[in-house]
Structures
1.
Amino acid sequence: MSNLTTSINLKDSGRHQFLIASQNYGTFYCIYGKFHLKENSNILSHVELELLNYKGTCNLGFVNHNDHNQIRVSTTTDNLDKKILFIEIPLVGFENNTKTNITATNFIENEEINIDNIDGVRVFRGLVKNQNIIDKIFDEEFSYRDGKIEDDRYNDDELTPPIGLYLSMNHWINDQVDFSNKATGDHCFTSNLKVTRDI
């Protein structure tokens, strides 16, 4: 297998860098991030996110901020004592909001994140059901149907795929991940990026 790699430089605030590629509702899209530091320090202050819908008829976008489904940022340590920046990004279908900011309010427990200590970035992309389209289309990302047979795959207010599903698979948040050989992770809703130190 080829050595497919993706890296990110958290000190480069001059451009949006690739975070994750995925597909929902038949639309292929990517999310990019621009990382900003506090003045004269290596402490992360905020991240600008931008989503670009490439192909498909349905626009994906960021959810409006609320207590239940919001972007979350935290750090963890894997089995090799490598520090990982973990970003959970919930999206919604049929949404034109393709730009948003991750601020200190999104940092779990107001954690102060020193990027000099970060070895990798792990991104989890979730999907939230758009309650405004329930009566207009059949939402196949959350339900299945075949004629008269219909079955809900997830609860209406649940993030899909559930973060619990992600954590129960082979890649727990704090497990060892080979960041040198995973461009977008092992699943379409995760991404692993190796942090580089040079600009």
2.
Amino acid sequence: MNFQKSQNSEQFYSLKSAADQGSFFQLRNVVRRVDVQGKDDITSSYRSHMNFMKDCLAAFVLGSCLDMFGMDSLDGCPNKFHIPLFLHLSSPEDQYAWVKQLGEQLVQKYVKLDEEHILTTTLTERTSEMDDQELLIAEMYNSDRSQFVCTCSKMYKTKGHFRRHLKENHGWKLSKQEKTTSEVDHIAVWRSSFMKLTLLLHVLDTEDAYEYGDGDRIFRNAKFEMLCADVAHHTKYRLWLWRMQAYECAILGERDAMEYKWNYTAITYGGKGKNIPNDNLVETLVQRIKKEKNKRTRIQCYT
């Protein structure tokens, strides 16, 4: 989980994206979260960074819901979806099926975006429009005079001045060649940001699995985490996740593997949803031992 939150910040938190709407750094400045400083301070300020990422995810989900339902505000009424009149009288299974259907539509429309298809379609339309404009401008070029001759009889030697004349005096809407996606920040658009936050959705699901001690989800998500660790070149996490799955799948016997799988968390305060990973518990105990040792050392030195 530490590796996942670090990877989210490394990919999506950039000090150069202050002007990009929807980026983590831009949102951090808008809500004035001064306790969020990026990947360098994640270890020391984990809680503040994680809460900020959760708030961003909730905002993206809320915005996508408002757009999908056709609502102008939280107090508005849906224009594109209507709740069935007798939904509250239906069985819990039917209500769950209806909500699940809406969730699937939300995921398909706002999360699983085909960036390559969208980029290809947009570039094709933009290129076609620019080609038509360039052809019209080329037809106005007089090779004998070596000048661009406008319909209002004004002549220009340079193409740039001629384009500005067409734009200011004749109302031409000239397309500009924009930067490609490889040159701009990948999270400049909020929908693109939301799609890339699917990794954060996985982090939250893993965090919930640890809190409730759900061994099935913990080991199922570990397979995806190992792939992410490999992509991010985190060899230490990749080997740790591989060893974790190897113990459960091959090394331990059936009974020991079951105990290993369902005792991967520990509870310290009691109650549901309060489990923590065993490695976090070990780190907590080590810190307590160090503090107690330093305390006793100071007492002995004083005496």
3.
Amino acid sequence: MSDKIQKIINAFYAAKRVDHYYWMHTDGDFGQVSIENIQRIIEILTSTKIEKFELDHDSRFHRAFVERFDEGRTSKIYVMASENPSWKRFSSVKEMCHVLIDEPGDFQPDPCKTIHELKDGAIIFDENAAPETESEGLAEIIAMELIYPLDYRREDREKLKEGISLEDIARERVVPAKYVSLGTSDTWFKSCLSIWQNLKSVEPENLDDYLK
């Protein structure tokens, strides 16, 4: 197995741990994933304090970004205030995913370098992508797994067959329509399902044991 494929599997396993503890140790949700509950779990798993802020200006380059302090013990996430609620939620989770899954070589102190290397399509499978560029694509994928989990996508695939519009589903889930479209597509859904079915069990099963 290549290092790149192993990195993807590790990232999905990290998402599985967050999802597992999310339902075991928080109030869960009622069809709209709780960003605050995801944050609580990631903070515990990474021993990182995460703070979120809104910036009152637009950016041509990004919807959100994360800065790290105290040798990684504190992460501050900045989201553009002009974004709509769906994108604010998704962007916040994507930046949390950097805290969750990034490896030391993934961090890029100059975001412009990463932005210029981004390409359309699945960047994480681009053999020529720099680690920090690859990290952006992987964080995006894992963010979708957390904010729009597989069980919801399974339900929504049935709703789409019943004639409910993609836009209505996106509003209900408070997820950008782009990710509802991608997440419910046959190829993407079946690929993610296959990965999740082959992931090892979460250990420890109880988060309280993790803290001991």
